Amino acid sequence: MIVLVVALVLGVMIFAGLIPIGGGPGGQVVTGNLVMWGFARSSTVSPILTKYNEQNQNITVSYVEKNPAAFDREYIEALANGAGPDLLLLPQDLIWRYKGRLTPIPYASFPAATFRDSFVSMADLYLDPRGILGLPIILDPLVMYYNRNLLDSAGVAKPPEFWDEFLTLAPILTKQTTPGSIDTAGVALGTYSNVTNAKEIISAMILQSGNPVTLLSGANLIPNLSDAGRITEAVLRFYTEFSNPSKEAYSWNRSFSSSRNAFISENLAIYFGFAGELFSLRETNPNLNFDVAKLPQSRTAKTEATFGKLSALAISKNTKNPPAALAAVNALSAPAYGVQFAQALSLPPPRRDLLAVIPPSPHYLKTFYRSALISKAWLDPSPEATDLIFKNMIDNIVSGRFTLSQSISEAQKEMSAIR
Taking the alpha carbons of 181, 184, 186, 190 in that order, is the dihedral positive or negative? Predict the structure, then answer.
């Protein structure tokens, strides 16, 4: 216990700037070999850590890329055996599940106000009553990709800025060989299983309208799909209209394998994907003439929003070296390494000071940077469970099994039962 207390005090002093990284009081040196687990590709993360290790020889960090499907089981087993990583590259949808398995950074060493001044607003999800659960280093916002050729052929001069524009735009962009049979789709909305990023698209629409999806009540996470303002109902009514053959906006159905594949095959005019998908889209079809814009917004909303995937460096509960772990997290989330992560991934950084200077080229970074600032997300009790709940909610509406309010009420009940 005494060793742990001394270690945490040293960590606090490091964050407060009283001890430089690698140095302790009276010439004491903070050293250690740390292991980091994460989902990001090793080919991206490891070169940055190599530079860090060269510049901070007292502390070395090695990276282990993990399969998301096996991560939960492997980490729990490691904790049970008193082993495992020192650091986690923790995505925001696992914050709620993992918060009890982390060592929070105390606010005495990193005040909440400093955190908010340093990182984008959605990073507040990592703020816990006990301290900061992680310092963000990777941000991937949801954006809108559009096929320039298909828009030009339809006489559409620029991509839509607001969701309600799709009600008139979708019929113009959609080509039907026979009534009900879609050859070229205008926009992929309305279904769930074959709409890539469906959960995130729906979440973005709900967040834009002012519903946070989940609410904190003391130590409990409460779903808010059945909101008093019936925001979710309005969003799902709009979303499902595009798969209804009796509606003017009909532009998507289950005949397509996925919206991503349809866009790559030039059978879809507008695709909602993450910024991190840009290069894979280009590589899969080098002839695809496409561009990128911000995610469409709600015309009546007071603030703009898109969905973002954020990953932060978190300290594992089982680390044997808290001072070194704190020093590494602090250094790797600082501007010098934040730039390196952003450049390696061609993504916007989550730091406000770095977002303040938009690179003049390539041109898509302007859209990515602006999307980063308006990125939002919600505390997810279980990504796998809520994905199925969202799927059932949409399928129940589209099939006519339940009304809008019944489907939402059922989803609310299922989310409340997640433990």
Answer: positive
